[in-house]
What we know:
The protein is an alpha/beta fold and 445 residues long. Helices cover 34% and strands 16% of the residues. It is built from 15 helices and 14 strands. The strands form 3 sheets. Strands 3-2-1-4-7-6-8 form a 7-stranded mixed beta sheet, sandwiched between helices. Strands 12-11-10-13-14 form a 5-stranded parallel beta sheet, with helices on both faces. The longest helix is centred in the N-terminal third of the chain and has 26 residues, at 2-27. The radius of gyration is 22 Å and the shape is globular.
Amino acid sequence: MKANEDAAGTRAAELESRERFADGKATGTHRTLTMNHDLSIDQALLVFGADPHGARNAADQHHQRRQLDFLRHQIWNGLRFGIRNIVVAIGDEHRWVQHPLGDGSDLGVELTYALSNQENWRHAFGQTHQGRSSELVLLSSAHCMFDINYCALLEHWLSLPPSLDGICVGLDSPDTSTQPVHAGTRDTPDQPANADGAAAECLYLLRPSAFDSRASLPWELVATGPGAMSHAGLHLRRLDMDAVDRNAIVMLSHEMDRQQLARWKCRPIAFLDRDGVINIDVPYLCRPEDCVWVDGASEAIRLLNESGYLVIVVTNQSGIGRGYYSESEFHAFMDWYRQALAQRGAHLDDVFFCPYHATEGVGGYLKDAACRKPRPGMLISAMKKWPHQKERSFLIGDRESDVEAAQAAGITGHLFEGANLLDTVRKCLTSKLGQLATSPVRYGD
């Protein structure tokens, strides 16, 4: 009874969020805050499907190394979107992945392993999900990686009927109608969604409750596709997203090597100042109720996401150094900030901030720091942390000090004059150093 009440309360809160979301879309502006604080994606379930060469591959160190490299890149890609809790569902033939990856701490995530033949994956899943704010789980094959903007899935979720148990996007996904559909309607009930084996090339965003109906559901989704949802009596919406096509998927194959993955991982960076660029410049902003978005802010960030750019905020925050708010309060605000943008389909890969001030800082914050713009410290730190294409990277700021920091870091700086950020980003993307990144490569074709 308690579980049913909790589920009903969750869906009621989500319905209210959807209504606020629809109201914001109808007004044509993103300046009003319309966010459900409980709706996010912070957990993933990566499923190893049946391996027809399991025994042979278990003894093949070359195969194991390739699979581990690929899995690390999957984890890295999820971590970009804040997915830090991952359940890896494996069979006996994949036990070897546990030792080299461990608990995931070296990768910045929490890894839990579940054995399919013991059907204990739901226990592991429940343990990692318990007490977390996320309602939604990303599910994918461990052999298939989607290079898309996961936040766009969250935006789609909010725009769809609340009766759905999940959404799916993949190579075979048709265009969808405006009404909920029962999963698998394109196929006969007794046939897999994709007889050609392409079902593994699907990505799912699901409610945790979807797994309650069928213990084997994750493996069925990986093996046979969305038709498994209809067999379990669940409702799924299949999406046809412009960002998803055969060039937007990285597939594990015998031709894949570390160099190819490294090239995929290396992206141009769009550095954005925060105050005066993404949000209206309010002195010492640190409360959600004071945040007002610049026109075109979320659309601009989403365009950068889907153009292959890393989007990194670099912001001077002397309000911390002056004692107006703490670093923990700043981080809490930025967590809210990133989630609010995510529900608009816009994703920030990272945030760098400088809390120091040379004359007004208090205590240890009284410092002429190299990270404070116009010095390039934050940009240099970001470029050391993130593999990047420097020649395509650029910065957008609202002050000359931002442009100076960009030039000192060896990239182009663009001065934003406070109109529409989307217009400015479009100009940057068509400039010589801001040209669109090449499409992600599908390996193994």
